[in-house]
Each structure stands twice: as structure tokens, then as C-alpha cells.
Structure prediction request, 203 residues.
Amino acid sequence: RRYPRSKVLLTVYAWFLCRSGRPASARRMLLKALAEATLSVEERATILGSLAGLPLFWDCPEYLREADAWSRQALDLQPDDLALKGTRGAVLVKRGRVSEGRSLLKEAFERSAQAHDRSIFACYLALAASKRGNARTAEGLLESAEKEHPDCPVQKKLADRISFQIGRRAGSRRRPRLHGTTRGGAARSQGRNFSGPGVSKKA
Prediction:
């Protein structure tokens, strides 16, 4: 199979594969691209960030252990990237390292200027709060996530999943309207979309 040579198109295609229920294909494609010796630092961080996002947004928890390594490597390459901080924080929260993850998510949430990214950060901050037994705080963060970007299907999916995890009654919150979007909403933060394929502004 031939994949796009552009790393921007590659990560967009990986997102498409995941939306089509084929995260394993996306993983194989991204790992193949990661093995290229000519990658720039930014390209390598972008691909690692996309790999780390697989178990955060799709039904593939079997990749969570690998996502721990991928997200750490990506942030090591670009430590000031807020999207990668959020990705790393979310992975840590899901891995049970709640305090470490919450710290990174909180920084990313407070510093990001992108409503879409902030909504995703808020969702994972809600998960962190629920893991610490703070259900009321988790509820408030889910409401904040919806206010930040109410029309984002990725935010809706995450919020519904986390609502279920904290025992929230289904349908108790206003459900955002779904739109036909590309790349899960397409907002970008620090050159990378937290929820999607990690597209660089320098495309």
C-alpha cells in the first residue's frame, strides 16, 4: 500500500483510518513513517503525538502502554508544545499517574488559546478529578469542556465516555450538535491539533 509522502497528509489519513474503525492500520502506517531516517524533529514529534493519541480518542486501549512511551518521546522533542503537553498529561491520567498528568493538563488548559484543545484538556481534567474522587469537580469540568467547544464531536465523545465513568446519568447534559467536520474539529494549538492527526502549521 502507498501512503502519502507528506507527513501532514499522512497524519490526516491516519485520522481518517481511525474514524473508519481501523486504528491498527493507522498505527502500522505511522510506525512505518516514524522509521524514516530523514524526519525533522517537528515531523517526528508530530507522528509520535498522533500515535499517542490513538488510545485517547479511539477504542484501542491495547495501545495505551505504547502511548506512554510515544507521548514522552514527543514531549522530549518539543517540550514547549502545549498540545503535546496535553497529550502526555491525558496518557498519564489514563495510566493511573493522575497527579503528574493533571499537572501537565492544567498547564496546557490554562495556556492554550485554542477553544477546541481546551475542551479536550478539560475532559481529561474531569477524568483526573473523578479518579481522585472529586465528582463535583469532574461535573464542572465537563460543563466547561462543552462551553469551550460545543460543536466538537470529539469533545462530545470524550465527555460522554467520561460522564459514564463517573456515573453521570445519561442525557443529563445538553448534547452538542454534530457536524460533518474534518480532523475532529480542526483547531490547532502550538502547531498541532490535540485531538487529531497533529498537523503542523508549517505544512
